[in-house]
Amino acid sequence: MTIFNKRKMRVLYVCQEVAPFVEDHPMCHVTRQLPKSIQDRGREIRTFMPKFGSINERRHQLHEVIRLSGANIVVNDVDYQLVVKVASMPGVRMQVYFIDNEVFFQERGTYYDYDTHQIYKDNDVKMIFFAKGILETVKNLQWHPDIVHVIGWYSALLPVYIKKFFADEPYFSEAKIVTSVYSHNEEEVKIDANKLLKKLAFDSINKKDVKYIAENATVTNLYKLAIEYSDAVVYGDENINDNLKKFIEKSEKPYIHHSHQPNMFDVYDQLYNEINVIEDVDAGFFGR
Predict the structure, then answer these.
(1) In terms of CB atoms within 10 Å, which of 32, 35, 71, 277 comes out highest?
(2) Could you tell me how far CA 86 lies from the centroid of its own chain?
(3) Helical packing angle, 219-228 and 242-251, nearest 10°
(4) pTM of the shown model
(5) Which of residues 282 and 12 earns the better pLDDT score?
(6) Distance (Å, whole) CA 251 – CA 243
(7) What is the widest separation between alpha-carbon atoms in the chain?
(8) Alpha carbon distances (Å) from 76 to 79, 108, 195, 202
(9) What is the pLDDT of residues 209-235, one digit of tens each?
(10) For residue 96, with 0-12 CB atoms within 10 Å meaning exposed, 13-18 middle and 19 or more buried, which class applies?
């Protein structure tokens, strides 16, 4: 008799922030609970976020993973050395990986300066470095994700990099992508679309590939870009603007609404099962 051992589903979480390391937005509490809850349901998970300068490395006991660090990540023809750090989540058996660099993420803030409240002008470079750094690290881990769950606008470039720049990479060729969208004050985020497009073009990602941010790289448009290259969507909260809601509904991609019900993470897990196994998801209890 032949026995087949089916491996666990692998879920890669790419997060803008995770509590308690960064707590600028309510999404941080979901990104703390969701990966652990999915892991408890028998899945294999990895969680990544930027090593923002606001993170106290000593307090949270971050340490560098030497075997994953040292690669050169090219952004717009400039080499930046990848530094990968890791920390354990307090109170749970889960680790978080941090993408870092000696040039980026050194300021006292996240995407904005905590002292002046000014938006950093190099967020475009950092976002590209973050996306490419994660994908290189996952390759170095020799880990094939089945689901890539992108949470927050700062992670929005990852789906297009998977589908375009890493299109021939076997580690991601079968992965299904989920994007979680959240409400934000659009005025708080300013990214120069022209500068971002020029940097993406260096990686052979053209204006047509990123049409939703070609004129204006707002939070809403960054989410639209991520959704275009995703297989499913999660409404992270109930205050998503009407423009984005209409876009999601028109996309006809399966979606769910996050809630604080006890069985919420079962809903996430079922969504992962649906899009990982079935190409054409039946609406069921998912939205259309």
Answers:
(1) 35
(2) 17
(3) 10
(4) 0.92
(5) 12
(6) 13
(7) 68
(8) 8, 25, 10, 6
(9) 999 999 899 999 999 999 999 999 999
(10) buried
Cβ-based neighbour number of residue 65 at 10 Å: 16
Amino acid at 284: G
pLDDT at 91: 77
What are the sequence ranges of the domains in the chain? 12-277
> According to CATH, what is the number of the domain 12-277?
3.40.50.2000
The token duo for 162 is 């998977």
Point out which residues pair with 151 in neighbouring strands: 15, 180
For 77-109, how does the pLDDT look when each residue is reduced to its tens digit (9 = 90+)? 999 999 999 999 887 788 999 999 998 888 888
Beta strand segments in 156-231, E? 176-181
8 A C-beta contact, residue 230 and residue 255? no
pLDDT at residue 1 greater than cutoff 70:
no
Nearby residues of 167 by Cβ (< 8 Å), 6 or more positions away? 173
- Helix/strand/coil (H/E/C) assignment for every residue in 76-110: CCEEEECEEEEEECCCCCCEEEEEECCCCCCCCEC
Closest CA to 240 of 254, 217, 256, 263: 256
Structure tokens at 173: 């060729």
